[in-house]
Amino acid sequence: MTRTVTVGLDGSRESHAAARWAAREALRRSARLELVLAWENDPYPYATAADESAERTVREAAADLSRRYPALETRTRCLSGRPSKMLVGAAEEADLLVLGSRGLGLAVGFLVGSVALPVVAHVSRPVVLVRAGAAAPYGDGPPDEAEPAGEIVVGLDLDRPPEEPLTFAFETAARWAARLRVVHGWGLPPAYGARESAVPESLAEEMTGEKDEALRMLLLPWRDKWPEVDVDRQVSLGWPARELLQASSGAPLVVVGRRRRTAPVGTRIGSVTHAVLHHTEAPVAVVPHD
Known about the structure:
Rossmann fold, ten-stranded mixed beta sheet, single chain
């Protein structure tokens, strides 16, 4: 089966940045890039013009990417319907979905909360959200012409450590020849209240050391499977989202998890993932897990 990276377009600056990010990732994966534009085309006198505009948008985007990356295989699709629903369906046939995380373009756009959040909440594949101007992991040229700068960052909950985000992070770090930083932020037991200063420094250091050792042991199977990946551990006393956001400064990619949903409606994705999506400038990979 042909590997596929799918990118959602809406004509905005952000979606074109996502398309360039997706193109380079498709080349790294030896995958085909599928460019999808989805919009709600209500019956009105200019529907034909809207159809033609959508088709022109994806054709021009595909042509631009082919000029930038001659080795890239592309396919285009225009889908009429609710964008979030259409993109979730398109993602089911792909290995990875890439979206611009902000912007308002041809139709509804990918403003966080309008299209991106419903897609992230319901899709069964990993989703990467890219902001316009986000640092590209390989520069703007083909991926074999530059190495990624900085460390890939992945957030991990030691109480309920899911396998899927870690596997995605290690696979990506190996593919990009990048370092990997695993971040665990932890809070005080209820007996200490909400203030971090309430715990003696010596006790905080002891508890942090215990958690760091637990993290080291947890990572052993992944380090054995991907020995070529250099891994840094970061265990900090503090709100997990804050620690992850601080670590993400300058990162080429941040990886977070999202528990798979069974409810057909709603956009709950978890407080940490929600905070990272809204506040980091780095591309964010949201990986669903059980």
